[in-house]
Amino acid sequence: MGVGWILALHGLATLTVIISFLCGNWPIFRRTPIGAIHRFLTSGAYEYLLRFVGLVCGNKGTDAILGVENFCCNRPNPSLQIFYLVMVGGIYFIITKTSFSYIPGYYLSEVHRYTSFLAIGIGIILFVLTSFSDPGTVNADNVYKYLASYPYDEIIYTQKECPTCKIPKPARSKHCSICDRCVARFDHHCGWMNNCIGERNTRYFMAFLLWHFLICVYGVVAIALVIAGELKESRIIQILTVYYGIENSVRSLAPHLVQWMLGSYDAQILLMVFLAIVSLLLAGFFGYHASLCLTNTTTNETFKWQEYISWQKKISEARASSEALKASISGLSKEEKPPESKWKSFFRRSPLENTDPVVKQNMYDRGFIRNIYEIIVPLSSRPAFRGNKLKRS
Ligand SMILES: [Zn+2]
Ligand SMILES: [Zn+2]
């Protein structure tokens, strides 16, 4: 019983740390222990380390740590790429060591030894494609085709020059401060890929997310089938029923079964929990980016629209309140009106509510089929846009 409890607590602690690290900044975890662990892991521990190094080594020590932080977070570097490869390789190695001896099993045929390797191989190819492909770097030689790809909407994009690259800034592009280049249809800079996600590699990025979600689900299902096969083959249910002298019902058998599984397959169960959490996170991330792709928006543009809408709301509220002030001043100077009924004034809308709602007018949204096609075949790679230079000259 003791070993079972230790394993269960170990699993629970691992789960809490992973959830806190990855999801602790979500609003639902605000002011909860999970939020506090997230703050400690993401910034608190780093601040304590800086203070400790400052006390022991002085300014030179803190400068060295800040230099490392600048290298890791503000400059292109492969640390997260290496971490990804070590993590994928490590997990696959643990799976081969802990579960391959059960394949072929009662539910899994030998082919899964090879399909799992193939799945990981395809995942790494997608990772390499996303990491090392051109996201749509804009330079003086190719700027014409990116300018031709998207018109300026005159709302969040207007004609201007990139102050760093000294070239016209195409609509939907952004200068990435980490990579120090302008990128067409810029989505975001991805630290895991050490690359920007832009017009030309969003397709690989989406395939990467979807494929890794599927690999994680495959891993969870395959490991579950390994354990289920062992349960079946070792006739453990019958053994437990006889050993404990209990009836063969789910309720009475479940605690003994869980204890037996935690004792015999602890590594597999921890792997399953880890893969299930990662698959949920990947599903959420893929869902978010898929919704952006379907509406032909980018992560960068969602921030731009948020800024634009809140700015426009403030302007129209200021306008409405100044009009209300003017009306009340002119009302005072006129003849005194009979007082408004309390009921009428209660139901009368505030002048601030009369402001027109500010809506997002995304001119790049051309219907989901054309939007998806635009992700798969970027506009700048199509002959009509590539030949634009010739048409212009
Ligand atoms: Zn630039
Ligand atoms: Zn970048």
Please give a structural write-up.
- The chain is mainly alpha-helical and about 400 residues long.
- It is built from 15 helices and 7 strands.
- Helix 1 (about 1-25) crosses helix 2 (about 35-55), helix 1 packs across helix 9 and helix 2 (about 35-55) crosses helix 3 (about 60-75).
- The chain binds zinc ion (2 copies).
- The site of one zinc ion (ZN) has 5 residues, from loops.
Compact description:
With 393 residues, this protein is mostly helical. The chain is 65% helix and 5% strand.
Record the SSE blueprint.
Layout: H1 2-23, H2 33-57, H3 59-74, H4 79-99, H5 111-132, E1 137-138, H6 143-149, E2 160-161, E3 168-169, E4 174-176, E5 181-183, E6 188-190, E7 195-197, H7 202-233, H8 236-244, H9 250-264, H10 266-294, H11 299-333, H12 342-347, H13 368-376, H14 383-386, H15 388-392
Antiparallel strand pairs: 1-5, 2-3, 4-5, 6-7
Features:
393 residues, mainly alpha, 3-stranded antiparallel beta sheet, two-stranded antiparallel ribbon, 65% helix, globular, binds zinc ion
